[in-house]
Amino acid sequence: MRIIKWFVISVVITTIAFVILEKSDVNFDKLAANDSHQLIGKKTDINRKHLPENIITSLKYKGEMFGWVGKSTEELVEAYGEPKRKDLSSYGYTWWIYPQNDTKYIQFGVLDGKVETIFATGEEIEINPLQIGSSYNDVAKQLEFLDSVTYSEGISSYTFFLNEEDIQMTPLVKLSENLFLQLYFDTFTEKLSSVRLMTGDILLVQRPYGLRYRGSLPEPPYLSESEWEKVEAGMERQIFDITNVIRQTFNKNKLDWEENVSEVAFLHSKDMAENNYFSHFSPNGEGLKERLQGKDVYYFAAGENIAAQYIDAPAAVEGWLNSKGHREALLHDEYTHLGVGVYRLYYTQNFLTKPF
Q1: For labeling, which of 65, 139, 296, 342 is most exposed (least CB within 10 Å)?
Q2: What positions does the domain CAP-associated occupy (predicted)?
Q3: Neighbour count for residue 219 (Cβ, 10 Å)
């Protein structure tokens, strides 16, 4: 069984005080650790002729998102126009990013000209019969949440194991032989926060849960240094975008991107990765206050979230949302600016309250 551990820590400081909101111990039971953009073009009606073969038998899932896995990039552009960005992922596919007014945010994962995975969040996402903001109990009535989910490919077989926390926070549902739905719940409100659709191959390469298998197991592609830099830059902007979508959901003000603070955050993520530690304090004892001072950053108040070993940016943000200290930073009323720094799978958010 493969076990992936995830870590998140949050801290808030002011110009005269440094206060840890919450420092989470490593959870060894866990099995997997802006600018608005108007969508362009027509909306595709989802009916039988548009559905890929792998979900023809699941016609009760009529929301817009369920029909896109397996479709071509030509169809994607026809329906949505050109994406705001194309962000390389660390799993071989490229995210096509489509945000809309902080209420409808979609990432389409494209590989070899076809959509292989989708992450979506925001109040206007069409995932009928589900809905972002639906209660856990209402969604559970529509879907069956199990502690194990199987997938077969040829003579190979795979079983994903979910513990109790997985089932409450990120249950996995098999929609068909080669289509899986991962649901992210806000465990504080017990409401659906976002969804991720993926093929079995994508699920295997990401492996967000415990896994037992027979046969071959695919590995993520090797990335050069320049490719990793592209992945990291993309995840930084995704974290920024998704953070603002979540803040919009809770009627919080939109944060502005702060480039010099992003550099501070990136250097901390890189330092943690290269020096094999996970803390708000570097080995020399310096913390966020000193890091901001070192770059001549001026502010009224500042806060920091860090995370490590989440599979990607959306998963990291959902992890922060589900931890009390990180959530307080993510949804803090007084913050005005945000810098994000990602190095490999180490993630840092630096929030600021600045004068206007």
Answers
A1: 296
A2: 70-209
A3: 10
